Amino acid sequence: MASNPFRPEEGTNSLDSEFLRTTWLYGRLFQDYSIENQVHYAPCDQHEVERNDIQHNLLQRVFEGRLIFPPIARPRRILDCGYGTAGWASDVADQNPSCDVLGIDVNPWQPDTVPSNLYLKVDDLNRRFTFDSHSFDLVQSRMMASGIHSNRWTDYMRDILRVLRPGGWCQMIELYYNVQSDNGSLTNEHALRRWSRHYIESHAGLKDLGVPFRLEAMFRAAGFVDVEHRMIQLPTCAWLTDERNNEIGAAMSENVQRMLSSLAVYPFTAKLGMTPEYVQDLVKQARAEARNPGYKAYFPLYVCIGRKSRSRSRR
Ligand SMILES: C[S@@+](CC[C@H](N)C(=O)[O-])C[C@H]1O[C@@H](n2cnc3c(N)ncnc32)[C@H](O)[C@@H]1O
Asked: How far does the centroid of ligand 1 lie from the alpha carbon of residue 143, in Å?
């Protein structure tokens, strides 16, 4: 049992029925709160739960089993912003039994079992953080660009910095949804590129899907030090020649095939006015192109870490 559990009332608002209501749209289940408040447009059904697990397992393969990138010897408190299906948060809690891990998500979904040192709470990260200052050794924010409002990012970074202990770290991982081709064979007319364009268009003015390649600048602007970043190609299928990357490609293929449909259903119809039939057809073509190794298609994944200065006086 962890020594310093989070009290249920600490740091967030209590679970409100507004987070529990859901609606079926175009054959998928969506959270009313997320749709009404334009928080994020992904479904919240079993199919999406499975995709989140597939994505977590894929990322574990990509990162060779590493969950925490900064050099943190014995973390005592960790915050996971947008825990999804709690794959990362559960693994971190299991590997660090003397650390309290707090996961926040707008969706009240919880796994059947959670480690005793993992605390999952419902809240909207677009609201200002109410956690105590200087209280976490690590804050992770992974795949959150479609859930954080464009005009929230500056304060989101400041909030994360504030709640970190002096010397604590933030790690952010973001996928850039504009699909690329390693041999330049994908044109703007290809369905995969049209899917990307429409996905970005459907979030325009509300979400900043260009955040992934500005992570380093955002960390520095917020006041983080020792900032490091890198880009990793996530192939849409197994087109790379070495064994490791081929395995990643095969795992990514399953995720991409599901993602192309899941993420398009609501924004392409409700925001861009496409018919469900048109969306289905576009997704079908995009899936076929994603499976074609000849295009050498990939989604860029950006990883960035940064440390809060050790001197309290600076922040
Ligand atoms: C793409 S999933 C990523 C899940 C997890 N971070 C991972 O990488 O496995 C995004 C998650 O963030 C949640 N989310 C999106 N916007 C949010 C917000 N404004 N506040 C809280 N949770 C949010 C969604 O409900 C979803 O579970």
From this structure: 7
142 lines ligand 1 (CB under 6 A): yes
pLDDT at 15: 56
Neighbours of 307 (CB within 10 A): 20
Residue 70 lies in a domain: yes
Question: Residue 286's pLDDT is what?
Answer: 98
Ramachandran category for residue 12: left, alpha or beta (phi over 0 → left; psi -120 to 50 → alpha): beta
Q: Is 106 in the pocket of ligand 1 (CB under 6 A)?
A: yes
Question: What integer pLDDT is reported at residue 3 of this predicted model?
Answer: 37
Round the average pLDDT of the chain to a whole number and report it: 93
The number of the ligand 1 atom at minimal distance from the alpha carbon of 173 is 8
Classify residue 9: in a domain, yes or no.
Answer: no
Could you tell me if residue 95 is inside a domain?
yes
Closest CA to 126 of 217, 204, 13, 220: 13
pTM of structure = 0.94
Q: Which domain holds residue 216?
A: 17-314
pLDDT at 8 (0 to 100): 42
CATH label of the domain that carries residue 129: 3.40.50.150
Q: What is the pLDDT of residue 2?
A: 37
Our answer on whether the CB atom of 263 is closer than 6 Å to any ligand 1 atom is no
212 C-beta closer than 6 A to ligand 1: no
Expressed in angstroms and rounded, the spacing between residue 270 Cα and the centre of ligand 1 is 20
Query: 275 near 191, Cβ under 8 Å?
Result: no
**Structural domain count, the chain:** 1
User: 123 lies in a domain?
Assistant: yes
Tokens encoding 29 = 């289940």
